[in-house]
């Protein structure tokens, strides 16, 4: 890890720093070569417009584009784009002084003999951050125009001027003024903030008044006045009308080698941060501080009003590194000198630059990496689902000659179900709707959920009942596969599932014992066909009352082949990676390997548990039974049969009693603990059809093995292979294919 960090810190980032310095050097060289000498221009009373200034009508090679003036109505004008504003502000040029590198400007909105004409926008060094080519002198004072809800003390010593004298007591910032303020603030004042002399009184009144405008004063207000001097608002307006000075000395610092401004070493040290005597590393340090301000201040200019936050200054006497920061959110800023040592200053700047570049690197990495991560996740998701759809299509194509099913489009499915209007039920693998085919035949349409399994439910159903036909197996008529939309169309079973008839529920129609027997025999024949009637044995793995559907004549049909598996008929034992089925109907060998291998005998066990519930008209396991001995029904009924007691009530006929006893004995044989002790489904059918006298009572079945270990157990953690039994009785919920 440390080697990786070192590689980042001392590999890529120093190279990036070198590129930044070289880019700055190339930029300076390009600017120097692009400037040529031109004759001075003139506009109005300004007759010596020369480098770095130029008129917009001058040749492109003349002057510096950053210092371009326009001549409007015979008056030279300069447009500045202030920070925080989306517009430029127009100023008229009063004078240009090439000896001290200043230009005197006046806001175009200010009119003579009209004290209401004041600038519309504030102007301080903070606002000039967008135009680094100009800056106000360190000694420039500021006029602060305020509106106050209450009158404040007027005193020359406090530098406060009453602005209401502009017009007979009316407020300066009224509805006609360009400066807006709350209507309740009726007292207007101008605070003269002398250069870097903001006192405690100003900090007090700025909390009481609303600041409307901050504007630089002329040089006549550079120093505080005496206490005996009375300043009127007319003096303030005259100062604004006279204009303020902006320095443009940085234009000279852009061309140090050429020295177009004819600066000597003393002037270079005074007006430029780094003079000709600066070493390359000092020049690079000063340049890096400018880059740091560009990278940090400009992106955060909505949250910070400073024009810089770090500066490396060098004069004839010394060099120092300083930070600029705000205090209490005021317009004023505080400067903190960090180091007076060249070596320490350079080291600090390099470290800060390195940290900023690392931060920018990680921000860019996140900005670029996050969309890539989202793209990867979407790609993975789509690939998984496309793979699932591909598996289904591959299966359908490979078994096309064996399938006699109709493939419907999804639009046809919507027509068949009348827009999915009649919902029969809902299960874990999808919802079932009643529909009507074009032939007039009713059908049950199961819409498979997109998120369930990996298409195996669909493949299992089509691969099993899609190519067989038996009167006791539900018929699959057709299917739909369109992208993520999958559906299966079955024959319609109007009487729903067997579950609601064998469990006592309000509104359920009771079935006679003879009908129960006929249904059990039909189910047995259906399972026998699955095991022995096809070229491949079909193991259902989910035989239960809910999956036995009844047609209009109460003929039973085995349904829901979502967990079914196909195996060769000669396979006596099959391989499973995990248990599958519904708790309460699953064979013990699905949990315990020592009992025996998994085979078609697992379906026999499930049928035996189903048969028990049909006999008792109750769940096999009932914690609310009247007697503790009846909690596990197979154990209780075994004792009844073994002791020769009648299972049914006295009013039942002898034939009914024999039929129920026969079903009970068959069920007890089917639920024997070891698979080898259970009969095949062919033998089960024979036993159900035989007389009661020919049947022997089997040994008492155990619920679980008497001795087990953790290594003996099979994995049962897959939730898609285990299903919970349902007690719901209504037709709507009982008609569910797969749950």
From TrEMBL:
One Pfam assignment: Pkinase
All residue ranges annotated as the Protein kinase domain in the record: 418-703
Main location: membrane
GO MF term list: ATP binding; polysaccharide binding; protein serine/threonine kinase activity
Amino-acid positions noted as binding ATP in the UniProt annotation, renumbered to this chain: 446
GO CC, alphabetical: membrane
Domain of life of the native organism: Eukaryota
Coiled-coil residue windows: none
Subcellular compartments: Membrane
Keyword flag Nucleotide-binding: yes
Keyword Metal-binding: no
Membrane topology term: Single-pass type I membrane protein
Protein name in UniProt: Protein kinase domain-containing protein
Gene source species: Populus trichocarpa (Western balsam poplar)
Taxonomic lineage from the root: Eukaryota, Viridiplantae, Streptophyta, Embryophyta, Tracheophyta
């Amino acid at each position: 890890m440390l080697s990786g960090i070192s590689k980042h810190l001392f590999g890529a980032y120093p190279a990036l720093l070198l590129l930044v310095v070289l880019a700055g050097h190339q930029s300076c060289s390009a600017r120097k070569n692009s400037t040529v000498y031109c004759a001075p221009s003139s506009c109005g009373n300004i007759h010596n417009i020369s480098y770095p200034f130029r008129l917009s009508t001058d040749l492109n090679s003349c002057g510096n584009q950053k210092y371009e003036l326009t001549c409007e109505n015979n008056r030279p004008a300069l447009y500045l784009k202030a920070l925080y504003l989306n517009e430029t502000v127009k100023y008229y040029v009063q004078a240009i002084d090439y000896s001290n590198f200043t230009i005197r400007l006046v806001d175009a909105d200010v009119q003579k003999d009209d004290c209401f004409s004041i600038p519309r926008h504030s102007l301080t060094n903070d606002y000039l951050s967008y135009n680094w080519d100009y800056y106000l002198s360190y000694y420039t004072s500021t006029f602060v125009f305020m509106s106050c809800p209450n009158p404040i003390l007027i005193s020359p010593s406090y530098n406060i001027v009453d602005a209401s004298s502009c017009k007979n007591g009316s407020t300066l910032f009224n509805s006609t003024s360009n400066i807006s303020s709350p209507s309740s603030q009726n007292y207007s004042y101008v605070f003269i903030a002398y250069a870097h002399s903001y006192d405690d009184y100003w900090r007090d009144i700025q909390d009481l008044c609303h600041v409307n405008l901050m504007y630089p004063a002329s040089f006549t207000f550079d120093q505080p006045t005496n206490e005996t001097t009375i300043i009127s608002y007319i003096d303030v307006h005259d100062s604004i009308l006279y204009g303020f000075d902006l320095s443009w000395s940085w234009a000279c610092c852009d061309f140090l080698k050429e020295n177009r401004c004819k600066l000597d070493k003393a002037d270079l040290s005074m007006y430029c941060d780094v003079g000709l005597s600066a070493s390359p590393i000092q020049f690079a340090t000063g340049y890096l501080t400018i880059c740091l301000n560009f990278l940090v201040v400009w992106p955060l200019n909505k949250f910070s009003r400073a024009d810089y936050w770090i500066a490396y200054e060098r004069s004839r006497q010394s060099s120092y590194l300083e930070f600029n920061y705000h205090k209490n959110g005021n317009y004023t800023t505080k400067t903190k000198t960090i180091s007076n040592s060249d070596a320490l200053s350079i080291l600090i700047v390099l470290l800060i630059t390195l940290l900023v570049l690392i931060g920018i690197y990680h921000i860019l990495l996140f900005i670029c990496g996050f969309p890539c991560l989202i793209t990867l996740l979407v790609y993975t998701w789509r690939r998984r689902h496309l793979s699932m759809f591909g598996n289904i299509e591959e299966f359908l194509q490979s078994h096309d000659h064996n399938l006699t099913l109709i493939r419907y489009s999804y639009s046809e499915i919507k027509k068949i179900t009348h827009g999915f209007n009649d919902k029969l039920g809902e299960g874990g693998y999808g919802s079932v709707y009643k529909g009507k085919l074009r032939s007039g035949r009713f059908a049950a349409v199961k819409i498979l959920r997109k998120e369930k399994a990996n298409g195996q439910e669909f493949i299992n159903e089509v691969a099993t009942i899609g190519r067989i036909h038996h009167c006791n197996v539900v018929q699959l008529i057709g299917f739909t596969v369109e992208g993520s939309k999958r559906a299966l169309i079955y024959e319609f079973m109007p009487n729903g599932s067997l579950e609601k008839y064998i469990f006592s529920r309000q509104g359920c129609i009771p079935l006679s014992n003879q009908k129960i027997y006929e249904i059990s025999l039909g189910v047995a024949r259906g399972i026998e066909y699955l095991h022995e009637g096809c070229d491949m044995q079909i193991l259902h793995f989910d035989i239960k009352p809910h999956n036995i559907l009844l047609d209009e004549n109460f003929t039973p049909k085995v349904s829901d082949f979502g967990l079914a598996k196909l195996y060769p008929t000669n396979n006596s034992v099959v391989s499973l990676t995990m248990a599958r089925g519904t708790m309460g109907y699953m064979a013990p060998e699905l949990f315990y390997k020592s009992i025996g291998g998994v085979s078609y005998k697992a379906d026999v066990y499930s049928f035996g548990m189903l048969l028990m519930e049909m006999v008792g008209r109750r769940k096999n396991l009932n914690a609310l039974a009247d007697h503790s001995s009846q909690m596990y029904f197979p154990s209780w009924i075994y004792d009844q049969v073994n002791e020769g007691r009648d299972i049914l009530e006295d009013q039942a006929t002898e034939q009914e009693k024999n039929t129920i006893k026969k079903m009970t004995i068959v069920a007890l044989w089917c639920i024997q603990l070891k698979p080898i002790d259970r009969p095949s489904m062919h033998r089960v059918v024979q036993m159900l059809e035989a007389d009661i006298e020919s049947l022997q009572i089997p040994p008492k079945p155990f619920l679980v093995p008497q001795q087990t270990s953790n290594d003996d157990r099979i994995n049962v953690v897959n939730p898609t292979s285990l299903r919970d039994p349902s007690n719901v009785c209504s037709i709507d919920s009982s008609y569910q294919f797969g749950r």
